[in-house]
Design goal:
There is one protein chain. The chain is an alpha+beta fold. The protein has 2 domains: 160 residues, Four Helix Bundle (Hemerythrin (Met), subunit A) (Up-down Bundle); 54 residues, no CATH class. Helix content is 58%, strand content 12%. The protein has 7 helices and 5 strands, in the order αααβββαββααα. A 5-stranded antiparallel sheet has the order 4-3-2-1-5. The radius of gyration is 24 Å and the shape is elongated.
């Protein structure tokens, strides 16, 4: 038995079934990200003046990823338009660019995550903190690159005054005997992972969830581009509709990032 309305539109909605499904799915996605964005706004507004972190993210990298995703949105549309014009070779070209953009985005985001997991805040017994990237963790010492000291008053603020340009960064070697101990005897040093503070927790939640959507969308686009491309010969209309559906999801992923970039990187 053939499934109805896989290519032709339904009379009640004016859309074929897959397009109805994707719009319902995207509506649920809007509610998911809307709840997370609302949580971020409430946390941001509720923070004490001067207590919300700034300058923890690499704006040029974030801008690069924004451009990459905008380019991928254009190539997705061009790929679908190529199929509408019966040009399968151009479709393959544009969709391959889309996949390369997805890989570039994930590569840049992986680099940003690695930077946060190697970026440490180390509390010393004299009340200062050393802040930098952990490159060596020896038996008696640790070594931080691009590091600097912060006095006790500045350390109480998560805005990190040391990120101002006049602060000089250098390599710092710290004796473990000089590091303050937590309960249980562990050294009081912590990376900028999702456990570090409220800002990093919501940053990793939002960007991590978005990255999963990028991965999922790229997998679908890859299978339609490669293993499932034979449908173009057997049922070109249905295949074109599938490309349109995957493109709608990809546009949603891009749109979410366009909101994430200014909210997390610039504000």
């Amino acid at each position: 038995m053939d499934i109805p309305y896989t290519s032709e539109p339904r009379q009640d909605t004016g859309l074929f079934n897959a397009k109805v499904g994707i719009w319902l799915f995207l509506a649920s996605e809007v509610m998911l990200f809307g709840a997370l964005f609302s949580s971020y706004i409430l946390l941001r507004v509720g923070a004490e003046p001067g207590e919300w972190p700034h300058g923890l993210l690499n704006i040029p990298l974030g801008m690069t990823n924004t451009i990459v995703l905008i380019v991928s949105s254009i190539t997705v549309v061009m790929a679908w338009a190529s199929l509408k014009m019966k040009n399968f070779a151009r479709f393959k070209l544009f969709q391959s660019i889309t996949l390369l953009c997805a890989l570039a985005f994930l590569g840049i985001k992986s680099y940003e995550y690695h930077d946060k997991f190697t970026h440490y805040e180390v509390w010393l017994k004299d009340g200062k903190i050393a802040d930098g990237h952990l490159v060596e963790n020896n038996a008696d010492t640790i070594v931080l690159h691009h590091a600097h000291y912060v006095d006790k008053e500045a350390a109480a603020k998560v805005t990190h005054a040391w990120q101002e340009r006049e602060i000089k960064e250098e390599e710092i070697t710290i004796k473990k005997s000089d590091i303050r101990l937590r309960e249980g005897g562990k050294l009081d040093m912590e990376s900028y992972g999702p456990w570090h503070n409220t800002y990093t927790a919501i940053y990793f939640t939002l960007t991590g969830l978005h990255a999963l959507h990028v991965i999922g969308g790229a997998i679908v686009i890859f299978f339609l581009w490669g293993p499932l491309s034979g449908m173009w010969k057997t049922d070109p209309e249905r295949y074109t509709n599938r490309i349109e559906i995957s493109g709608l999801f990809w546009h949603f992923v891009d749109l979410v990032w366009i909101f994430l970039f200014p909210v997390l990187y610039l504000l």
